[in-house]
Amino acid sequence: MALNVATLPITVGAGAFLVRDGNLLVVRKTYGPSKGMWTIPSGYVEPRESVVQTIEREVTEETGIKGRAGPILGVRNRVTETANDTFLIFSMTYVSGEPRPDRVEVSEAAFRPLAELRTSDSSAPFTRAIIPKLARAAGLQLDPYTPTADPTHPLAYLLYV
Question: 139 in a domain, yes or no?
């Protein structure tokens, strides 16, 4: 019998494409398919959290870097036997801090040259694939319209255009 995607849990995650002086902020995860390889900081949306809050929190937790979420540069959707997973990749602006891993989810955090990461065997395949596509992407911008100041209100939303 074919997999019925409508019955799968839906997950939403966010990743950061944060470039400073030609170097991309990357981490080595301690788990998952990219374990031990350079990949972008990322994580899943928590209850009552927007995708913008998610990526800013995850970058700080995993790397110690403060950043501001900018445009959405890409969207990856992956359906597996256990979940329908959507992953938003945000451009981020560097605000402050120096890379330091959390030593729980991330064993290393660093700014590495884009050109090196694009071809290195120590980069996750996803990292190598997105660098040439996202390095010059303009992305979708956050629309300034906000229907309510209360983020828990059912009409509160973020719109990217």
Answer: no
Residue 111, domain extent: 5-134
Give domain status of residue 153, yes or no.
no
Tell me the sheet residues that pair with 11. Answer: 85
- pLDDT per residue of the chain (161 residues) written in tens, 0 to 9: 677 878 889 999 999 999 999 999 999 999 999 999 999 999 999 998 999 999 999 999 999 999 999 999 999 998 988 999 999 999 999 999 999 999 999 999 999 999 999 999 999 999 999 999 998 899 999 888 766 667 666 666 788 88
The CA distance from 25 to 33, in Å, is 19
Is residue 58 in some structural domain?
A: yes
E strand or H helix that includes residue 101: none
Determine the Cα–Cα distance for residues 23 and 112; give it in Å rounded to an integer.
5
Q: How many domains in the chain?
A: 1
Rounded to an integer, what distance in angstroms lies between the CA atom of residue 71 and that of residue 146?
17
